[in-house]
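Q: How do we represent a protein-ligand complex in a form that can be generated token by token?
A: Start from the inputs.
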Amino acid sequence: MTRLSDRVLNMATSATLAMAAKTRELRAEGKDIIGLSLGEPDFNTPDYIKEAAIQAIHDNYNSYTPVDGYVELKEAIITKFKRDNNLHYTLPQIVVSTGAKQALYNVAQVLINPGDEVILPCPYWVSYADIVKLAGGIPVEVQTSIATDFKMTPQQLEAAITPNTKMIWYSSPCNPSGSLYSKEELRALADVLKHHPDIYVVSDEIYEHINFTENGHASMAQFPDMFNRTITVNGVSKAFAMTGWRIGYIGAPESIARACNKLQGQVTSGANSIAQRAVITALNEPPSRVKFMIDEFHIRRDLVLTLLDDVPGFVNNTPEGAFYVFPNISAFFGKTLKGTTINNATDFSLFLLEHALVATVTGDAFGDPNCIRLSYAASQAQITEAIKRIKAAVS
Ligand code: PLP
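Then emit the structure tokens for the protein with pyridoxal-5'-phosphate bound:
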């Protein structure tokens, strides 16, 4: 019998990837499933970025790269942080990793000691809790709801802090709720942290460009008193349609960046060379070059909300960014639909898969048991058909 480690046995399987696997299985059986479960843009990587990768292959970028990334890429990241976020990082504060996911994993491994608590405003991205637990940390969930636009209030933050609190982690725009913290809201959280100078903040900004407001994007590190205790995480997967290229990065206090570099040196030896060269081009070009994708997500966001408003039992929030909606579907709990009793969000998500042939993700995976997540990284025709099917299945 295989004797696996407790570490991996105690880990949850990524719910989004599990749903994707189930979708593939059902499709292989010939079922016409519409997939609204994956957090992946349905666009191709733009040609100007692909050309840069092809050039890098011809230029023989085939050797190991510096562990923390090519200097030219780190310079492009510094320029991007200045241009888009008014953040002023230096070369030793930047580390390039194999996706934002590895960047987050590195941060957990270099900062968390067993028993350290990490505050996670719920709903949170599916992998945070397990990344924290793998490092021996304890996720401390702070429940939010539509009433606060799925955002943690300063009072909730204050109440969640204990002598063991090491960090708070959040994404803005948020996966799965699509909510954005405004500058004022971040300042109010930072004001709480003023009284707790040893707590770090991990600000996951991977959906930064997918923002439908006029107000732009706010970063915790923009506040001078927070710069030296914030790890800003970003990457190219979402706004540049580059999920498979696997490039993410951090801007962080130098000691933390150095520790991530040390860890990465023993684990991956650095991110893929060709992808790094392509990302230099992606970041050096102005974000306006990918705006056509953001505009399309905006149209789809409006379409999804209009259609869902017409489905009984769905209570919807208006997400301001990313490409997800996160409706509260608890009105169905305790009801029997087509012979299936719905006790929780997982039952409901599985019901939709079986009876509407639409793949979604249960809110349980994101620490919110009352909601499900629908991704609108799908064509307008697919979205329209999916919600028509959902309405028919629950009516
Ligand atoms: N952070 C959030 C909030 C995400 O939604 C994702 C991907 O779904 C990631 C990080 C990971 O991104 P990457 O593809 O760069 O590893």
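The CA atoms of residues 13 and 197 lie 35 Å apart. The longest strand covers residues 165-171.
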